[in-house]
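Risk mitigation, structural track. In case the binding assays with 6-O-phosphono-beta-D-fructofuranose fail to produce interpretable data, a predicted complex structure has been prepared as a fallback.
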Amino acid sequence: PRSIYLTRHGESEYNRIGRLGGDAPLSENGLKYASRLQNYFEKEKINELRVWSSQKIRAAQTASKMAHIAQHVEYWKVLDEIDAGICEGLTYEDFESRYPKQFGERDKDKYHYRYPSGESYEDLVARLEPVIMELERQSNVLVISHQAVLRCILAYFTNQNRDDLPYLKVPLHTVIKLTPKAYSCEVEMFKFDI
Ligand code: F6P
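Fallback model:
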């Protein structure tokens, strides 16, 4: 049976200080995770593994470690993180203090809330449709992307509803292995201690 593997990039310098979005490089811990991920896939010996990464630096750095193991490493802009518009580079605290009304609106309806000059989860689901269609057709694929994007992909393969989707747990330094069964997917999580 084939599997789809999902992982966020390793911890970035922005993750460390709690800033949203941006294009920061990996932190020291993030670099360690990239190596651990490489070891994991070396041991798994997966047939014809394809790797699809976002075009953000933190994802590409994580994916670069997979170059020897994978058949292809491709960089897709559609896998980039949700565009937080005017909130890019802010922490959640900055967001709440600068735009309290917006912050409240997002809390009320996180799925539909669209960042000014940015995207909503609903927008993201539409953006990811072609990726999901392609994932349905492929054999073994590792997707290296971001929290919000991976929530959308995970929700699709595990039939979760819109209200739960923006809150699904997709932690850092964890591989989520999805193995399609008749009507849903088996989900396994592998957490790496860094
Ligand atoms: O904090 C990391 C991050 O990937 C941000 O870049 C992004 O805006 C956020 O997570 C998405 O999570 P949430 O929708 O819960 O804010």
